[in-house]
Structures are given as C-alpha cells and as structure tokens.
TrEMBL record, chain A:
Family statement: Belongs to the ketol-acid reductoisomerase family.
KARI C-terminal knotted domain sequence ranges: 209-353, 354-487
Gene that encodes it: ilvC
Protein name (Swiss-Prot/TrEMBL): Ketol-acid reductoisomerase (NADP(+))
Binding site for NADP(+): C45, G46, A47, Q48, R68, R76, S78, D108, K109, Q110, G158
Cofactor note: Binds 2 magnesium ions per subunit.
Keyword Cytoplasm included in the entry's annotation: no
InterPro entries to which the protein is assigned, alphabetical: 6-PGluconate_DH-like_C_sf, 6PGD_dom2, KARI, KARI_C, KARI_N, NAD(P)-bd_dom_sf
Annotated catalysed reactions: (2R,3R)-2,3-dihydroxy-3-methylpentanoate + NADP(+) = (S)-2-ethyl-2-hydroxy-3-oxobutanoate + NADPH + H(+); (2R)-2,3-dihydroxy-3-methylbutanoate + NADP(+) = (2S)-2-acetolactate + NADPH + H(+)
Length: 493, 489
C-alpha cells in the first residue's frame, strides 16, 4: 500500500482538496429512504459506534453490530454496549456477508486489519462507510472495485451525537464519497441518508472529500485544537507558579479558562472572543497575538507540509510499528507536568474573570485559530473545511480540558490526534521560550485592567477591530454559524 | 420572650431585574412553623433562597440560632428543582440518557451520595435508614443518580434534609412528584423533626399539610401577608373566561388507527433488575386513561416506551398507532402524534430557549427551535400564548422564569399541535390551584374532540373530569385495569 494522495497528479490533488460544499437543507428531503430496508452493520461499539447506531435505529433503520470473536466471547464493553441496548451482535462471518452497508467505526490504527478482514466477506455492490479518511488516503488502502466507499463524520463526541439527536437536533457533519469507489453512483445519496439517520442534516452538512477531510483534520488537531491548547496551558500555568500566583488558583484558571474563553469563540468567532476583553486588554491581546503568529508561523507551515507530503503519517506509522514507543513516552510525560498534578483550587472564578485574568490564552487562541486557518487555505484547503477543523472544533476540545485537564483531552481524542499534539507541543515550547520571558502576571493570573486607566487611542482600536472582523475566518464563520442554529452552551463548573 | 428566630426587615429583592419583594418584613418566633402559599411568581422561592443565604447574604435578614440546641445551626433549603453531577463533577445530562445503558455508570450511587453528604455534615449513617424506609427509598440505594425518576430525586433531597435535621428547614414544593403514601409519611416525619426542635417553612399549595404548621402567609405585592387557614381558598376559584383557541376546540382529531397502544407481555430490565413485568395493555382511540402507581412502580418507564424514548422497545411485542415498533418507523413519526409533558421533559428542556420558541418547538417535538416555522404555526402559537396569559413573557428565556411560568409554557407546547395522543405526566407540578383547575378544564375541552389521553397524577384533586379508565402499576406489574363508572362526562 502506498500513500493515495501522493499517487495523484497535482491537478487531481487540487481537485480533491477543493471539494467543499455547504449543503442546503433541501438536499435532505429524501430522508433516510436511500438506506430504508437495507441492512446496516456497524463494526465496533465504542462511544461513536453505539450512539450513531441508537440514532440510526430510532430513525427507522435496521442496525446490527459486528465485533471480533474475542470481544464477544470475553463479553467486553463493546459487546455489553450493543446487547444491553437490544441490538443484534455477531461475528464478522455471521453478519458481514448479508450487510448492505458496513460501517467501520474502529480506531484508525486498526483500520487496515479490520478492512482486510471484512472486505472478502462483503457482498457484491455493498457499501463501506468510514468516519475518517486516514486509512484510504494516508495508508492507501485499496477497496474492491464493486464496493462503494463513503465517509460520514459527525464533528462531535459520541455522547453529543446522541444528546443532540434526542432533543430533536443533530451535530454538524462532514460527508464524502471516494471517487475511486463509486461504481453505481449511489454513494452521495447513501451518505446523505446516513446523515439524516444520525440527525446531522439538521445542524449543517459539509460535502468534502476523503483527501480534504484527512489533510485538514490532521492539521487542525495537531496545531490549534490540541497542540496549541496543550502548549498554552502548560506555559501559562508554569508562568503563574514562577510569579508566585496561588497554585490552586492557577490550576483552576487554566483548566476552565480555555473552555469559558472558547465558548465566546463558538458564538461570536474570534472577534466575539476578543470583544469580551476591555479595550486596553484587547489592544494588548491583539499585539501579542500578532507576535505569536510570527513566531509560530514556520511551525504551523512545517506541520501542514509534513501532512501534505505524507511525512507525518509515515513517521507515525513507524511508531505504530514500534509498539507506540514515542506516543506512550509522551503520554506519560504529559501526565507528569505540574499543571496536571496540581488540583484546581476551591476558589470561585467568575465568568468575566476568566477573560480579564487570562488574556494570554485569548491571544493564544486568536493566533492559533487564524494561523491554522490561514495555513490550511494557503495549502489548497477550502475556507469552509478549514473553518470546521480550526475554529469550530476548538470549544469542543476545550471542554475536555475543563473536564479533566490535558490527560482527559488526550484520552478522548484519537491516537492520531494525540501523536500529532505531542509532536507540536514539543516543538512549540522552545520556540516560545523568549516570548514567555516577557510575559508577566497582568497577562496571566491577575486582572489586566488593574492599575490601568483604560484609555486607548481611537484609531488604534478601530484598526484592530477592522483587522479582526475582516479576517476570512470571521466571514466564513459568520455564514456557517448561522446555519448551525441554537448551539447548546457548554455548562461550566 | 426570647429573640425571634428569623427577623427580616425591609427586604427588597429583584428577580432578573424585576422587583419581587418590596420592603418585606417577617418575624418568625420559636415554635412557629410557617406555610408560604400563593400564586406562582409572587416571590416565594426568591425569599426562601435569600433566607438560606444562597447566592448572596442579606444584612436585613437576621437569623438567631439556638446555641443550646444540639441541632445544626443552619437554615437548610430544599429546592423545588434537583441537581446532580456525574463522577467528573459535570451536570451535562441529556433527555432520557438514563435509558441508554452505556451512560448510566458515570454517576455516583445513591449510597455513595448519602455517604458523602453524611460525611460533610458529620451525620451517623445508621440514622438514615429509618428515613429511607419511611419514604420507600431503601431499595434504591444501589441505583445510580441518573437512573432515578424525578419523584425519586425529590425524595433523595428530602431524605438528606430529614437526616440533617437543621434548626431551620425550608422546603420548596416538597410534595412534587410524591405519591400519596410518601406524602403521608413525609408529613409524619416533618412533625417528628419539628417536635425535636427543627422549625419549618413550607412552600406549597397542597391541601394536606403536617399538623405542626401553625401560621400561614402569602406574598402580595412584594409584602408578606398573614392569612388564616380558612382564607386558603380551595373551591371558589373561578376558571378563566378566555375562550379556548378555535384551532384547538373546533378541530376534530383523526386517529391514525383504532388501536393506539397494544402491549403484549412487555418486559424491561436492567441487568438483574426487572422494571416492567409482562405488561399487557390496550388503549383504543379516544379513550381517557389515568395511570396510577407508587413512585418507582414503573410509570415513567412505561410512558418512555410509548414516546419512543426507550431503546428496549425494540425487543418487545408492542404496537403503537397500529404499527409494530421496530418495523421501520422513526421515533419522530411517533412523537409527531403525541403531545407530551413530564417532569423529565421539563428538567431536560433547553433553558436557553425563549417562551415563544419553546411553544413553537412543540410542532417539531424538539427541545428548542431549530427552524423557521412559517405563518400558520406562528399564529397558533401567539393565540395560545395569549390564552395562557404569557404575553409579557413571550421573548423571555425559560431559565429566567419561575418554575410555574416555565411549566405553563411547556403545557402550551404540549397541546399546540393538537395531537391525537396526549400524555400528561404530572402536568400541573409547580402550578398554583387556579392554574391547575384552569388547565384541567382545558384538557376536558380538548378531549371532547376525540383526543386519546393518558394522565398521571398523584393528587386526586388534580385529575381532569373526563377520565374514564384507570390502570394501576405495582412493582412493575399491572395490578388492575378498571373502568370508572362515575366518570363525569
């Protein structure tokens, strides 16, 4: 197997990277009909598998689960999840041969083994559904030519997929059809029907391609979503300890701050987030985020370049082959940081205080979101795809940090994202060493406005507001957010 | 005479920028147990929270605890609403999550919850068993918090308070969701702790109260007004003379099938625990049923099956609206035919939706509104808002309203689409007497047009007149099914 993307001529690379269509709700009027009466078999029953299956069944579709023999015989959690909710469960041999659609919801690392095992069992003309394109694009998995290959990727954790469905809504979803495997031309209709089945059609659906999904997803998770949130959190905590801020307070500010700050981002974009600061703080946050963008730009570009060339997936797969040597070492080291080991103090921090006392994180988030977005768009990814994989997902990841710090974030995200996150974090911290020596507690730990008279130059402020609001991520974001109405607000402790 | 226990002078309080208490004065002396009653939104809950020092402490509320008493010197408030968290300290739960098997193990058990409460207040764990038994709660000790029904959550709150025995105990709508026996036992326990020195303030509009209540007050125009027991008006309430909107009163409901529900030997279990056993039940189009049973008898599980909310529906022989469950129908096709109100629906409802959005969302069976409803649905909603007297709250967020007003909005949501099946699970929780009477008259009116009704209510006084059949559940089994002869139709 060789990297699929690298086998393509430049013309076709650009063509596939450029698939990006925010679909109108009228495209879903056919409901679940394209899958009605068909036999859907889900491989794997973790959080995504179970919750997508519950939704599909509640939408009137026929759903069963297939697990490896050992999981069934050992009555593992995946077996319990499926049987206790009254689904049929069987081995690959029992269920795959009669399946019309096989849904692969196992972790990336297992894809090659799983797909190799199920493909010979699949009937002629069946459909194979992925929720991530890594196996097809980076590993170059070749699928039998009679099989249709599609992707449906809900852009939320599995429990949200269920929670939003039962309240009559859904989560934003990305769909794609693999151009090498659409022999009957039915891929798109089935992907759309699957979206309706999980409720995604009510929350905004982006038609993408396997290539665009992988190259943007990897970039987002490595840089702004996980990598920079980790780097920013650790540096902020260490700075506060260095400057004598109470450790419990520092721990709480960092743990919950990123969630509160990105909640503003979710509703109002980068400018909505920056507007939560006082005028003086906004001017300062703008200035240092400009500086941060300059410092980090080469690193963001390196990550994007390595993702495009396949270098990133090559080195990660080497680590898979070495029994996750690097991944496990990095994971252990993250568990040992001072931030991770200091429990959040029993202090009350008001919602506005998270902005006023953590201006540094606002600057980090603005720099990271804009840089990730700009770098993706420069590499040929369309703005809508870049928006989903940068700004849109940041609050979701921030929520996992609020739950149980970085350990929880790295547990919830995929191994692929986790690997990329550490890679970024280890390269980014030394880059920021000089910058951090200039940071004092007014930017992190204490109220930035304290002791300042609050006056700013009108022209400076106008220029900053203009720069923030006219950025392409804001223009695209305003349009997409309008389609994702009534986003639920994340509750904070 | 010793100094008063509570002395409030000139208390002014706003609820979301609107003044509710204005120069309120109140003196509570030793051995007094008060009932606070009156209309929804008059400021009872705000006053209670202020006395317990929740959110803010007020210098014009003076509480003098008895230093000689062995009881904890605190004013403990039992809220009209319950809250719980998962093991990670989050309270981000979703509607009917408790029926999704994978998600039930993320919250603490009742036992662990009680142990941590006992530890916090240095209470002896042995003393809680008697309270648990009296409220019929002992068997639930190993349940996780998310598995509890709303009535059971209410009981857990009460168990904690009765175990703690604070010097001043403020109970806000303590009878909500409790069955008749539990109410009786609660009153006995309240009398007992009052005997032992706890002073009570009870916020309620119920008729059955503990005997130790010796003073009664309402809040009128922001001030406390003491009334006599006779002044608590029960019978002479005039129902509103507003006509029922014609889109509801004049349209005949066409049933999709002669048989609305048919259950044959339906069983639901969680691991070893069987919650419903061999349920057989038929409901024909147009019938008006009341569903009775103690807390924990399986009522809410039974209703969740009918509403398409329970995953185990797919493993049972069970027909809804003429179709077998699991024969290719979606839950949205089922919900389309049902108007539902339940404590659960209220608890999980989107608090950031406005009153108007909440009511319109009844057309789509969603929690909160996600699309533009178009002219006719908007017009119907406006008519109903006027009928329920909610005009001034039309654009107010649900979480900015007191419980009673939220409930009215959700009742309007329940009926707005004039569904063929109405499921009213304790619809009048949190409403005052007049609102309850008013709503039940409306239900009677609606049901004249062929609507099928399933009504759950623990209080006889709250049940509408049109009821003609009764099913009684006991420990997950059908104990009896009967036709009520004295039906007043």
């Amino acid at each position: 197997m060789s990297n699929y993307f690298n086998t393509l001529p430049l013309r076709e690379k650009l063509n596939q990277l450029g698939v990006c269509d925010f679909m109108d709700s009228s495209e879903f009027l056919d409901g679940v009909n394209a899958l009605k009466g068909k036999k859907l078999v889900i491989v794997g029953c973790g959080a995504q598998g179970l919750n997508q299956g519950l939704n599909l069944r509640d939408s009137g579709l026929n759903v069963a689960y297939t697990l490896r023999k050992e999981a069934i015989e050992g009555k593992r959690d995946s077996w319990k999840n499926a049987t206790e909710n009254n689904f049929t469960v069987g081995t690959y041999e029992e269920l795959i041969p009669t399946a019309d659609v096989v849904i692969n919801l196992t972790p990336d690392k297992q894809h090659t083994a799983v797909v190799t095992a199920i493909m010979p069992l699949m009937k002629q003309g069946a459909t194979l559904l992925y929720s991530h394109g890594f196996n097809i694009v980076e590993e170059g998995m070749q699928i039998r030519k009679d099989i249709t290959v599609i992707m449906v990727a809900p852009k939320c954790p599995g429990s949200e997929v269920r929670a939003e469905y039962v309240r009559g809504f859904g989560v934003p979803t990305l769909i794609a059809v693999h151009p090498e495997n659409d022999p009957e031309g039915k891929g798109l209709a089935q992907a759309k029907a699957y979206c309706v089945g999980t409720g995604g059609h009510r929350a905004g659906v982006l038609k993408s391609s396997f290539v665009a999904e992988v190259k943007s997803d990897l970039m987002g998770e490595q840089t702004i979503l996980c990598g920079l949130l980790q780097t920013g959190s650790i540096l902020s905590f260490d700075k506060m300890i260095e400057k004598g801020i109470d450790a419990g307070y520092a721990s709480k500010l960092v743990q919950y701050g990123v969630e509160v700050i990105t909640e503003a981002l979710k509703h109002g974009g980068v400018s909505g987030m920056m507007d939560r600061l006082s005028n003086v703080a906004k001017v300062k946050a703008f200035e240092i985020s400009e500086e941060l963008k300059d410092i980090m730009r080469p690193l963001f570009q390196k990550h994007q370049d390595d993702i495009m060339s396949g270098e990133f997936s090559r080195t990660m797969m080497e680590d898979w082959a070495a029994g996750d040597k690097n991944l496990l070492a990095w994971r252990a080291a993250t568990g040992e940081t001072a931030f991770e080991k200091t429990p959040a103090g029993d202090v009350k921090i008001g919602e506005q205080e998270y902005f006023d006392n953590y201006t540094l994180m606002v600057a980090f988030v603005r720099a990271g979101v804009e840089l990730a977005f700009e770098t993706m768009v420069q590499a040929g990814i369309k703005p809508e795809s870049a928006y989903y994989e940068s700004l849109h997902e940041t609050p979701l990841i921030a929520n996992t940090i609020a739950r149980k710090k970085l350990f929880e974030m790295n547990r919830v995200i995929s191994d692929t994202a986790e690997y990329g996150c550490y890679l970024f974090d280890y390269a980014c911290k030394p880059l920021l060493a000089d910058f951090m020596t200039k940071v004092d507690t007014d930017l992190v730990g204490k109220n930035f406005n304290e002791g300042k008279d609050g006056s700013v130059d009108n022209r400076t402020l106008i220029a900053i507001n203009e720069a923030l609001r006219s950025h392409e991520v804001e223009i695209v974001g305003a349009r997409l957010r309008k389609a994702m109405t009534a986003m639920k607000s994340i509750k904070t402790a | 005479m010793s100094q008063p226990v509570v002395h409030i002078t000139k208390l002014n309080l706003k609820y979301r920028h609107k003044p509710v208490l204005m120069d309120l004065n109140w003196t509570i002396n030793r051995n007094e147990n008060w009932l606070l009653c009156g209309t929804s939104g008059s400021g009872k809950t705000s006053l209670a929270k202020a006395m317990a020092g929740i959110g803010h402490s007020y210098s014009n509320i003076e509480i003098n605890f008895n230093p000689q008493s062995s009881l904890p010197a605190i004013a403990y408030y039992v809220a009209n609403w319950f809250q719980f968290k998962d093991l990670e300290g989050q309270s981000n739960f979703y509607y009917q999550q408790r029926y999704n098997k994978q998600s039930t193990e993320t919250t603490a058990t009742v036992k662990a919850e009680l142990e941590s409460f006992g530890k916090k207040h240095s209470l002896s764990i042995h003393e809680v068993d008697r309270v648990l038994a009296a409220l019929g709660f002992s068997e639930l000790k190993d349940s996780t918090l998310i598995q509890l029904s709303s009535g059971e959550h209410k009981k857990l709150q009460l168990v904690k308070a009765l175990w703690l025995k604070p010097q001043l105990l403020i109970l806000d709508l303590p009878y909500n969701g409790l069955d008749v026996l539990s109410r009786k036992n609660l009153n006995a326990l309240l009398e007992e702790i009052s005997e032992a020195g706890t002073q009570l303030i009870l916020i309620s509009n119920e008729a059955e109260l503990p005997g130790c209540i010796n003073r009664i007050a309402t809040i009128e125009e922001g001030k406390l007004v003491e009334i006599s027991a006779d002044e608590r008006t029960w019978n002479d309430i005039e129902a509103s003379d507003k006509p029922v909107p014609t889109f509801l009163s004049e349209s005949v409901v066409n049933a999709s099938s002669a048989e609305i529900i048919r259950m044959i030997n339906v069983n639901i279990s969680y691991g070893e625990k069987q919650v419903l056993k061999n349920i057989n039940w038929e409901v024909k189009a147009g019938e008006k049923w009341v569903l009775h049973g103690h807390n924990g008898s399986g009522k809410s599980t039974l209703l969740s099956l009918i509403c398409g909310d329970h995953p185990q529906a797919y493993a049972n022989d069970f027909h809804l609206f003429g179709n077998k469950r699991g024969s290719g129908e979606s839950i949205w096709e089922i919900k389309e035919r049902i108007g539902l109100i339940s404590p659960e629906l209220h608890w999980y409802f989107d608090p950031s939706a406005t009153v108007w959005q909440s009511i319109v969302s009844g057309f789509y069976d969603s929690s909160g509104l996600f699309c533009d409803p178009g002219y006719s649905k908007k017009a119907k909603t406006d008519e109903l808002i006027h009928y329920f007297g909610l005009d001034e709250y039309k654009n107010t967020l649900m979480n900015e309203l007191p419980l009673g007003k939220q409930r009215l909005a959700l009742l309007a949501r329940t009926i707005v689409k004039n569904p063929e099946l109405l499921i009213l699970d304790e619809p009048c929780q949190g409403l005052d007497q007049q609102q309850t009477l008013h709503f039940n008259k409306l239900v009677d009116e609606l049901c004249k047009n062929g609507t099928t009704l399933i009504y759950v209510g623990h209080f006889e006084s709250q049940i509408p007149g049109c009821i003609e059949k009764r099913i009684l559940l006991e420990n997950g089994e059908v104990k009896s099914v009967e036709t009520l002869l004295e039906s007043v139709l």
